[in-house]
Amino acid sequence: MSVKRAVIAGIFLVSLWCPAWARPDLPKEVRQTNFNATLICNSPEELSARLGEMAQKHKAVVNNFNLDSSSSQASANLQCPPGELNGLIADLTRLGRVENQSRSSSDYTSSYRDAANRVQLYEAVAQVPLDTILRQANLNPTDQALVRAELQQMMRERIQSYQSSMQSYLDYNNKAQLSIQFRFAPAEAARPVATPTPGTTATSEPSTPAPTPAAPVNQGTLLPLYLLGFVNLTFLWLLARRGPSAPAATPAPPGTHD
Fold first, then answer.
1. Helices in 84-140 by DSSP H: which ranges?
2. Which of 53, 78, 116, 186 could pair with 178 as two cysteines, CB 3.0-4.6 Å apart?
């Protein structure tokens, strides 16, 4: 526990001295810009050719480009200088119809400055002689050598870790990120024209509809008509059977007798 307390005390003292030391110039802000979009394009071949031209024009780097013609989709991730971002976006949106797009920005200024302060802190601790601290821990020479090596290695690793973080943040500040999804939808083909039958002429006018067949007559309404016709025919037949009636006798002229 005494070694740990001595190391903590040393780091605390160095942290008090650090603000008085000269610090390197830090950027005013560290910010990463991100652009995401989905484009509807006509031709995969045209996309492959023009994407490379645009990247070269705007000093962009194509990190990956995946084209799957079987599924009619493609994707690309690019990086470009922030000053070229607007021009690259304008050219990309001319590749096809923009279905959706979004633009965002992430601020890493605080994280970058915190990493820079940690680097200075551990570099300062690494410069402090550890012999005084180790003697206060009442360790034998072998253990002192072991602790010294462990502490020095820990300082180097921490310094390298924070320096790596600082470089990553600077890369964010110097490169805008673009993520583009492409979908291919060729122009709709013309509708096929119906093939005319031999001896006829094709026309765009709609054919005359066939006449609608008459609805069947309800049999229930015909039965009274059948009965009426039967009665009329029977009456006419009876009149024909009776025949013409005998003529009446002509009266004899006056003055004549049998």
1. 85-92, 109-127, 131-136
2. 78
